[in-house]
Amino acid sequence: MLPRRPLAWPAWLLRGAPGAAGSWGRPVGPLARRGCCSAPGTPEVPLTRERYPVRRLPFSTVSKQDLAAFERIVPGGVVTDPEALQAPNVDWLRTLRGCSKVLLRPRTSEEVSHILRHCHERNLAVNPQGGNTGMVGGSVPVFDEIILSTARMNRVLSFHSVSGILVCQAGCVLEELSRYVEERDFIMPLDLGAKGSCHIGGNVATNAGGLRFLRYGSLHGTVLGLEVVLADGTVLDCLTSLRKDNTGYDLKQLFIGSEGTLGIITTVSILCPPKPRAVNVAFLDAVGPEGKDHRGAEPGWLRVQVRPLPPCGAALRHRD
Ligand SMILES: Cc1cc2nc3c(=O)[nH]c(=O)nc-3n(C[C@H](O)[C@H](O)[C@H](O)COP(=O)(O)OP(=O)(O)OC[C@H]3O[C@@H](n4cnc5c(N)ncnc54)[C@H](O)[C@@H]3O)c2cc1C
Known about the structure:
Helices cover 25% and strands 14% of the residues. The chain is an alpha+beta fold. Among the domains are: 48-149, 2-Layer Sandwich (Uridine Diphospho-n-acetylenolpyruvylglucosamine Reductase, domain 2), CATH 3.30.43.10; 156-271, Uridine Diphospho-n-acetylenolpyruvylglucosamine Reductase, domain 3 (2-Layer Sandwich), CATH 3.30.465. A hairpin with a 5-residue loop joins strand 5 (156-159) and strand 6 (165-169). Helix 4 (64-73) packs antiparallel against helix 6 (109-122). The chain is globular. The model is unreliable at 1-17, 19-38 and 311-320 (pLDDT under 50). The structure holds flavin-adenine dinucleotide. The site of flavin-adenine dinucleotide (FAD) has 34 residues, from strand 3, helix 8 and strand 9.
């Protein structure tokens, strides 16, 4: 669930949310604000390591040779420009800031595998990042971890128009996937406010719930298969598209909600439900525990009133 919004959030932060943004490269709202130039009056985000008593583990630091190796693995996908690195170093709530000097933008699972193998051999720390919309700071480095962005891994690999099974790369933006399957009379089994920016890989890594949770269930049920690259570069292929698969342990479940701690999700196979023929919006009216409401319901009772959305104005007038 989305945590309750603290009352103290500054107004400049509330003017935009990641849901309105595009991919990593074109941020809006708070993402745009945390670029190189802080807007006047925008406080600088303190470094996480100065704010919390955290200790850097004995990882190596990135050398020129490492950068050359990364450039060979992902030509054109190595970002070291300090200005370009400011945004991906800060979480969108602007509470945490790392000081990574390198961001890598692979396009394929194979490239992710080569990157992680190199980092494993060199003892370099890596922080996976999707749309950087997470609420708990897991998407940004604490120290100088290498940021591995899935932004360029954004291809739909297959869609089955009868079963509704979608197979796509982890960096696909949720809203774009929604559009893709809706054109084919299906919907994504999850929907949330960050959909314009968050990636399906990030959704799986955080086991995101969202607005359709009660109707279509958790990602533990709708994700049919995953391809994951482990920390040493091994590619774990659990990418089945079977709705029932009892061939051994269901390893993919470990990665759903693992926040990138066990490996990098590179491909997702997900079951999309058929698009409903109609959607109705209901207004729920609950009586508080303190006393009766103005229509005399007893305390503690939940009064539920279902009203179709159109005409919304009429429904609201009726309430008064
Ligand atoms: C406006 C708004 C509304 C929201 N509503 C809901 C809601 O209704 N329900 C809900 O459950 N959540 C909600 N959230 C939180 C939501 O779950 C996350 O924002 C989203 O799922 C994270 O996706 P992301 O691509 O932005 O991941 P990021 O924020 O980039 O990363 C999140 C975590 O996953 C890891 N990660 C990212 N990609 C991968 C990958 N490919 N492989 C392995 N690890 C990876 C990161 O290291 C990090 O630990 C909301 C957030 C916002 C901003």
